[in-house]
Amino acid sequence: MSRFPMPAQTRRAFLASAAASTAGAVLPVLWRSPVHAAAPHEVQLRVAPGRTRLMPEPSGEIAAWCYGGTVPGPEIRVRQSERLRVVVENGLAEETTVHWHGVRVPHAMDGVPHLTQKPIGAGERFVYEFDAVDAGTFWYHPHQRSFEQVERGLYGPLIIEEREPAHVDRDVTWMLDDWRLTKSGAISEDFGNRHDIHHNGRVGNTVTINGRVPDTFAVRAGERIRLRLINAANARIFSPDFTDLQPIVIALDGQPVAPYPPDGGLVVLGPAMRADLILDMTGKPGRRVSIFDRFYEGLEYKLVDIAYSDTPLREGAPDWPLALPANPLLEPDLETASRNEVVFTGGMMGQMVAQGMGEIMGPGAPGGMTRDMNSMMGGGMMQMMNSSTAWFINGIAADQARHDMKPALTLARNKSHVIAMTNATAWHHPIHLHGHSFRVISRNGQPTRHREWQDTVLVSPREKVEIAFVADNPGDWMFHCHILEHQAGGMMAVFRVA
After folding, report:
1. Which of 29, 186, 281, 360 is at a distance of 20 to 30 A from 220, taking alpha carbons?
2. Pairing state of beta strands 75-79 and 29-32?
3. Cα separation of 228 and 241, whole Å?
4. Residue 405 to residues 270, 399, 476, 493: CA-CA distances in angstroms?
5. Where do the coiled-coil regions begin and end (predicted)?
6. Measured CA angle at 342 (ends 339, 343), to 5 deg
């Protein structure tokens, strides 16, 4: 289980959350479709400036950007195999899009500006329509200037329910986020600054659950809860410690896994990642149990308190099945799969890491990596530090302003592919592939224990991770770091499936 020291600059900014509203507050449900709807069900989703209250009264509301007038945006719930139509109206003074993170949508519905659609202009509308192919926990957010738009509050949960959901007493969604607030309590306007781009991204100083600084989450002894965790932060990695509650992981990034307890009770979620947990409330009535976040070494903090009511629901945990039905994913054939190498470089201290990984940066490295690293170790490093370009995939930094990104890889459609990703940087990178889910098959040459399906995988510094999947969704797909400042600084590429 990786633990990562926070840079000194962000240590001072870090704020462990104080008392506030109930963490288990129910997110507003925009639409829940009937089980057997024959036609698409339409959702109206307006994107506009608004106000939200992060802190309890007497703290006031602050300016934010909202989906449907709230932060997070309304929870959309559908059943697997149903069709969803979302009419997005842009009430902002700038362009936006909506990306359905982790959902295997058709290319034209993926919400990536200039790659899958023209951005939605101010005052314009766009209709997204797709089938809910996979059951699971997903979310939606903009892909236009996402380092600012997401940070201002534009995100919301999309829950696709199984045809036969797991038997629980409550199904609860927690969207985890952090905010960089000024002394006056407003959102800091220093979006996309060079320090954040070159380091760990925009780590905030105020942590929220469902848009509120958390205090307590009310439960009853004997209750079984399905807890859906979504990391909506720009850069913060969460690792809540549920040790006393003995959580069981039943899905990652929306895809079912054989139920298992996480190592040490810690659930590690990089930005954009999700986990579905089964939590049996085994404490005594009237008791309080604290959940701490323990990812950043030396900066552990209390995330929320679990508060048991005085009246138990039942004696002991229920004996109900935990496993979820599999989604319709094609199993990759590792014997026939193509082999592809991707190397991430750049960022602060990148030169030091690259020098220590000389073997990776040798003559056989992909994409001209040796030339790229030699450039950065010379005068190119100073040039990089004086611009917004900081990160490279196979030696190339994406320029989002040009809108003409050429595919870094072309993958044969309906064939199996293995992507070996090497993180030759000093920072973690949650790597997200659009349009597909993949199996995580190895880390540093060792097979993974669960061979989990994911759409976003957290790659540690100096780590090599292999993923495998069948490229069955045609089109040009984004492949990028979901630390949104890293994406803005160049860590983004295009995979073509044809």
Report:
1. 29
2. parallel
3. 15
4. 26, 8, 10, 7
5. none
6. 145
Residues 108-129 have a mean pLDDT of 97
Domain with residue 227: its CATH number is: 2.60.40.420
Residue 155 neighbours by CB under 8 Å, 6+ apart: 67, 72, 73, 139, 140, 141, 175, 177, 232
Contact between residue 73 and residue 140 where contact means Cβ atoms under 8 Å apart: yes
* Same structural domain, 406 and 293: no
The reply to whether 356 and 290 lie within a common domain is: no
Reduce the DSSP state of residue 148 to 3 states and report it.
helix
Q: Is a pLDDT exceeding 70 seen at residue 196? A: yes
- Asked whether residue 82 is assigned to any structural domain, the reply reads no
Say whether both 300 and 435 belong to one domain: no
User: Is residue 325 situated within a structural domain?
Assistant: no
Burial class (CB in 10 A: 0-12, 13-18, 19+), 312: middle
Q: Per the structure, how many domains does the chain have?
A: 2
Q: Is the dihedral of CA 474, 476, 481, 482 positive or negative?
A: negative
Tokens representing 83 are 């069709």
- Output the six-digit token pair for 122: 């101010």
SS3 letters for 152-211? CCCCEEEEEECCCCCCCCEEEEEEEEEECECCCCCECCCCCCHHHHHCCCCCCCEEEECC
If asked whether residues 483 and 346 sit together in one domain, one would say yes
Instruction: Give me the domain span that covers residue 356.
Output: 338-497
- Token code pair at residue 231: 């990391």
pLDDT of residue 9: 37
Same domain for 228 and 376, yes or no, is: no
pLDDT number for residue 28: 59
Chain CA centroid to CA 36, Å: 30
Radius of gyration of the chain measured on its C-alpha atoms:
22
Residue with tokens 């592919």: 417
pLDDT in tens, 144-163: 999 999 999 999 999 999 99
pTM, two decimals, is 0.90
Of 258, 287, 308, the position where a domain reaches its end is 308
Closest to 56 measured CA to CA, from 28, 93, 19: 19
